[in-house]
Every structure is written in C-alpha cells, then in structure tokens.
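Reading a protein record of the kind used here takes only a little practice. Think of the row as the fold of the chain written in a discrete alphabet. With that in mind, consider the following protein and its fold in token form:
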Amino acid sequence: VGCDRSKNLVDICGEKNLEAFVCDALSVPMRSGSCDACISIAVIHHFSTVERRLATIRELARLLRPGGTALIYVWAMEQEYKNQKSKYLKEKSDSKDKEEEINTGMAQRPLSDHLPDGSSQDSACCDRLLSDLKDKGCGAKPIADTTLPIHTNRTSFHSQDLLVPWHLKGGCKKKGESVVTGLFPVGSKESQELSPVFHRYYHVFCEGELEAVCRSLDCVRVQRSYYDQGNWCVVLEKL
C-alpha cells in the first residue's frame, strides 16, 4: 500500500491498479501495528523543524508491528563522501545548468505550520539533538531568520535549510492534450514560459543526524545506518 500528499501521483497509481491513497506522513489513517515493513523515501527532508521530523518517524514506528522494520532515506548535506561524488553531482550537464541558475537568489521563508503534539520528553530530546548537532557542525553556513537560499541544482549544498528549484517540464496541458518538449533552447524565454519553476523546501541531513533523531525514540532500534548516492539512510526495528 502506498500513500502520498499528491493526489495526481496517487491517481497515477490507481490507473496502474496499485493500492494507494492520499494522506499526510504526520497522520497516516492506518491501524497501529498493522505493517510488517514501511519505507519512507525522500519525504522527511521536506519537514522544516526537528519536532516535525521526529513526529514523522514516530508515526512510521506506530504503524509497525513489534519486530517490524522501516527503511528511511533523506537527502544528505554531504554530496561528496569518501572522495566520491554522488550521482546528483555527476549528472551536472555541460551547460552548467544555465536554466537552473536563472533562479538563484534569496526567497522568503515559508510561514511556519503548527507543530504536532508531542511529549515534553520528545521536546527535550529535540533540544539535546539540536545542541549536539550545533556542537558537531557539518560545514553548513548559518542562514538569516527571514530568508532561505535558493540552491543551484547539481552543485554542493552550502546550507542545511534551502529551497530547491523544480521545473515543470512541458508546461501545463489540458486533459487529452499532449505536450511536446524540447522545442525551444534551454534558458530561452519560450522555454522558461513552458517550464514554470516551483521552489520546494528541503532540510538536508548531516552525517549522524538522521540516526540521532531515530535513536531519540525509545520504541525503535537502529539496525543499520549508511550512505547511499547522496542520501543518509537508516533501517529501524520496532521494539
């Protein structure tokens, strides 16, 4: 069974006769202990606070039966690890992503959402985790309270909290119509008009950060923690 915030993506699953539904990772409408295994791929790095990221992992653990396992992937701050560049950096085109660089600059930080309810113990864990990570450091530059940097695609990260440009290729289309891409040069006015840009929030994780968040929950055990092509990954077991 799959779930996603995007109704359009869930509709695609339905067209392929796959089981999927729309929901929020902070509140999944399934029975506690009903899953043998869960995966969360490229989701948790979109939550903007430690508390919300912790709550998402707690919700994932709630779905697992005792002895069940979960796999979590998040984007890594370290896109070059052990002298090896990630696939993300390697795919930088010869044109140096001129289309992407058009949109570099600063943007207003999104308004904060209400935080999910959590115990004071979890809050204390978050405070300790934040303090530990600040002491450890990972080369990220601090950012102003009111702005977020816009990332230049296919380059190394310079901040843990940022906005990543996403280009809607081919523009909008009506139902039943097809869109022909590649008609205009990359970076041209026509190309930009056909490819609107959306900025998505990311919190990229430093080494050890995801594992530390998981270890702050007493209902799971970290079986494995590893790096995979620009992502930090953990495998959890429900106790």
Notes: Residues 97-119, 173-186 have pLDDT under 50 and may be disordered. The first helix runs from residue 7 to 15.
